[in-house]
Amino acid sequence: MRNSVSKDLPNFSQIMTEKIKMMEFYNTVRQLGKGTFGTVQLCERIHNKQKIVVKQIVTELEGQQLEAAKNEVVILKSLNHPNVIQYYDSYIQKGLFYIVMEYASKGTLQESIERERPKYFTPQHVMDLFCQILMGLDHIHRRKVIHRDLKTENLFLTGLKADVIKIGDFGISKNLVNGKMANTVIGTCNYLAPELCDGKPYNSKSDIWSLGCILYEMCAMQKMFDGTVSNIVLSIANGRKKTVNTKVYGKQMQEIIDMMLQPRPEDRPDTLALMTHPDIFPSLYYLGSYLGCIE
């Protein structure tokens, strides 16, 4: 393995030092997932039985996969919010790259939707989840980071009495230095903003589009844009948007979705505008008091 580190990740070498001893302090419980480039394990700290997630990546692959892993570490290290998955540690051992992070015990939002279908979430539950995602995304954006792959699979649920939702999986996020626009087309096609479909530069407003798709999905229990890749891109380009059941969720919910799914990025609200919206702020204020999520 080469020892070179990307110039875009100046703090990675400091993050990775003296981490091998961590292996002595937790046991593997079970495997949560497996892909081409590694595995995700549920582990348990020996001294206090705390559950954690350990992502294991084969470092010899180098290239884009290793750079994505390094990028995830640097970004997670810079974030600290109740609605963002907490980063704990990282290290390299025996040709494997490890990222240690918070475990969300209730799985993903996508799994929750699949379990509930064909029933619907209550309007209040939808707003509770949406406001938490919004608060986490506001924290991310104020640190000049765009997620670039915001979707129900990357939103994790935890909590004892009530659902606490956390944004995770920053493997392909982009740190926007000095507010520069990104231009790498990456993400999941169901949630891609029109500017990404057109190969144009984009900014944090692409995450707002994805958030609009997620809000619709929580209401309708299906994706806003679905089908083959070509059909999805065509539907996005032509503005073929679905609508929620306004008898259940009210016209205000559809209006919020429509705000975020504006074709032109400059016409979409940012996180602050959404947080102060009269149909969102009351729920957000209650959650901020109840969960302590407002900074």
How many separate structural domains?
2
**Could you describe the largest sheet, including whether it forms a barrel?**
5 strands, antiparallel
Helical residue percent? 25-40%
Rg measurement, Å: 19 Å
**Number of discrete helical segments:** 10
Q: At the first level of CATH, what is the class of the largest domain?
A: Mainly Alpha
Based on secondary structure, the structural category is alpha+beta
Strand order of the largest sheet: 1-2-3-5-4
CATH-derived architecture of the largest domain: Orthogonal Bundle
What is the assigned CATH homologous superfamily of the largest domain?
A: Transferase(Phosphotransferase) domain 1
Fold and architecture overview:
The structure is a single chain. The chain has 295 residues and is an alpha+beta fold. The protein folds into two domains: 12-102, Phosphorylase Kinase, domain 1; 109-291, Transferase(Phosphotransferase) domain 1 (Transferase(Phosphotransferase), domain 1, Orthogonal Bundle), CATH 1.10.510. The protein has helices at 12-16, 63-78, 109-116, 123-142, 194-197, 205-220, 229-237, 246-260, 271-275, 281-291; strands at 26-35, 38-45, 51-58, 87-93, 96-102, 145-146, 155-158, 164-167, 174-175. The strands form three sheets. Strands 1-2-3-5-4 form a five-stranded antiparallel beta sheet, covered by helices on one side. It has a two-stranded antiparallel sheet with strand order 6-9. Helix 4 (123-142) runs antiparallel to helix 6 (205-220) and helix 6 packs antiparallel against helix 8. 36% of the residues are buried. The model is unreliable at 1-10 and 14-21 (pLDDT under 50).
